[in-house]
């Protein structure tokens, strides 16, 4: 079975699966393209033609996992940046509160 035949048979199923796991259609389309590329590059590793469908969905599942790992790392990085800014603002607020007391030697 050629890559064109495989893709013609399974593309719609893969796309529906991706849309059920990823909320943004553009992300699902990008993942679908990644799966096509991986299929093309790794099809020679498939030993049993009867296992094409599970093999493709395994690739799709790994692509989804990688997508969320990448997406979550970005969110964590963004979260840490927000926390650092809040901590800096809190320190500045604390200094503004304590500074008058220091000047009056109340502390």
Describe the structure.
The chain is mainly α and 107 residues long. Helices cover 83% and strands 0% of the residues. It is built from three helices and no strands. It is rod-shaped. The mean pLDDT is 80.
Spell out the key features of this protein.
mainly alpha; 3 helices; 0% strand; rod-shaped
In short:
With 107 residues, the chain is mainly α. Helices cover 83% and strands 0% of the residues.
| Morphology call | rod-shaped
Count of individual beta strands: 0
Helix vs. strand class: mainly alpha
Order of helices and strands: HHH
Range of strand content = under 5%
Q: How large is the count of helical segments?
A: 3
The main pleated sheet reads as: none
Give the low-confidence spans.
none
Topology of this protein?
Elements: H1 3-21, H2 25-42, H3 52-103
């Amino acid at each position: 079975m050629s890559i064109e035949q495989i893709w013609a048979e399974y593309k719609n199923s893969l796309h529906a699966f991706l849309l059920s796991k990823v909320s943004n259609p553009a992300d699902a389309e990008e993942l679908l393209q990644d799966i096509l590329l991986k299929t093309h590059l790794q099809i020679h590793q498939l030993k049993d033609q009867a296992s094409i469908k599970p093999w493709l969905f395994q690739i799709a599942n790994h692509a989804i996992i990688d997508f969320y790992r990448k997406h979550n790392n970005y969110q964590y990085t963004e979260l840490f940046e927000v926390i650092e800014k809040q901590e800096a603002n809190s320190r500045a607020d604390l200094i503004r509160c304590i500074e008058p007391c220091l000047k009056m030697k109340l502390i």
